[in-house]
Amino acid sequence: MILSSPDPALDPYVAAMLLKLQREAYAIEASLIGDDRIPTLHEDDEALAAPRGHWCTAWEGVDLLGAVSWHEHDDHLDIDRVMVSPAALRQGIATALLAHVREAAGGRELIVSTGRDNSPAVALYAKHGFEAMGDEEVPPGIWITRFRSTS
Ligand SMILES: CC(C)(COP(=O)(O)OP(=O)(O)OC[C@H]1O[C@@H](n2cnc3c(N)ncnc32)[C@H](O)[C@@H]1OP(=O)(O)O)[C@@H](O)C(=O)NCCC(=O)NCCS
User: Fold this and answer.
1) What is the CATH number of the domain that holds 117?
2) For a Cys staple, 49 with which of 9, 18, 138, 141, CB 3.0–4.6 Å?
3) What pTM did the predictor assign?
């Protein structure tokens, strides 16, 4: 597995691959929480690339296996997305991507949110030392849990 740091705003091919991966991965979360009103499921490739955050992607040859994106702040990093191809789950890809973000954080806190009922993601963050900060209902009917981790 190779990790790289693309900018989808500058690379339409990568943006299209990320969008495909995002739709496949977040369909899993939609099924787990029983609701498809997840913003990442409704983005197009322009919206995906627009925020101009940081990305790390995991590749096996030409296959995109996973990706994480985040925004940096003075005292913390906000993780926006963590997604792994349904064909490549439980192979440590999200773990490798989170390790990359932790290194980029350089000691700053990591903040991430996920569907409260998304048990794979909740287990992932628990395994990697994140602690739950509480649940929020956004939008009505969708419960998310916010996690934080000091590096
Ligand atoms: C959540 C997700 C990112 C995990 O990716 P992954 O590459 O399969 O995770 P890893 O292989 O690194 O797993 C690390 C740990 O997470 C936990 N975990 C991951 N998937 C799990 C599952 N289906 N059930 C229970 N625990 C799970 C386990 O503790 C696992 O360690 P183990 O395999 O040694 O038991 C992936 O399932 C995914 O893309 N889901 C859809 C998108 C999503 O929900 N993103 C997160 C919300 S932001």
Assistant:
1) 3.40.630.30
2) 9
3) 0.96
